[in-house]
Design goal:
mainly alpha; 2 domains; 74% helix; single chain
């Protein structure tokens, strides 16, 4: 059973205010800052469109002139993360944070890279730093919860998912993972309610439906569990876990029926 909905989120928002502040060494800082902002916007447009080579060229050009420019360091680090070049991504984002340690986005993205490097405790710490700077970002709470889930720290993960949902009540992934955390904590009635809420946004997610069926079976609601597994198999006939679980629940039902007096 997939214990949670995997995947964590990158945040990237160029900080033009910092770009302006870094231009004081130029003879005409206002003009230079405007040109820098234009270059960053162009790079971000290319980056967003998937033209990583074009974006990298501009980021590199900026860094040739201003080696500590926060936006170019940070976003080139994001680009390297997207390319799977994780060691370089970490180095670049850490350099960006030396230039601008108050960046919640860069701390979050460093956490994403550390998670990909399987440095999960460090990732949790980076997400915590991001949230200390901006506690109202639901995706960072979700990211932190996801890594805590992987570490088996389910109560802390649950608290992170609750914070994400307080900010964004209809957040499907957080609802899914909250249900999984509650399952791990043996709070099955609450887990079932959480899965039901998640289904409003993810009605055909077979792993969610399978998890819900497993909770119904654990609660002894075997007929409902059987129907729930049938729903999974109607959507994905080859789902191996749902088929195996259905057979197990069917056997339990038959055993109970056999124990009943005639």
């Amino acid at each position: 059973m997939p214990p949670y909905q995997g995947g964590i989120f990158i945040l990237w928002k160029p900080s033009f205010r910092r770009a302006v502040l870094r231009m004081s060494e130029f003879s005409n800082p206002q003009h230079a800052a405007q040109k820098l902002q234009q270059a960053i916007r162009q790079a971000v447009q290319l980056h967003s469109a998937g033209d990583l080579a074009g974006a990298e060229k501009i980021y590199r050009s900026i860094l040739d002139s201003i080696p500590v420019q926060y936006d170019a360091l940070h976003l080139l680090g994001v680009l390297r993360q997207q390319q799977g070049k994780l060691a370089e991504a970490r180095e670049l984002i850490e350099k960006a944070l030396k230039s601008y340690p108050e960046s919640a986005e860069a701390h979050c993205n460093l956490g994403v890279v550390l998670h990909a490097l399987e440095s999960r405790e460090e990732a949790v710490a980076s997400f915590g730093k991001s949230l200390a700077l901006n506690p109202k970002d639901a995706e960072v709470h979700y990211n932190r919860g996801t890594v805590l889930t992987e570490l088996g720290r389910h109560q802390e993960a649950l608290e992170s998912y609750d914070r994400a949902l307080a900010l964004r009540p209809d957040y499907p992934r957080a609802l899914y993972n909250r249900g999984s955390a509650l399952t791990e904590l043996a709070r099955f009635d609450e887990a079932l309610a959480g899965y039901d809420r998640a289904l409003a946004s993810l009605p055909e997610n077979v792993d969610l439906l399978n998890n819900r069926a497993n909770v119904l079976a654990t609660l002894g609601r075997l007929d409902e569990a059987l129907q729930a597994y049938d729903r999974v198999l109607a959507l994905q006939p080859g789902h191996p876990e749902a088929r195996e679980n259905r057979e197990r629940v069917q056997a339990q039902i038959q055993a109970l029926q056999g124990d009943r007096p005639a």
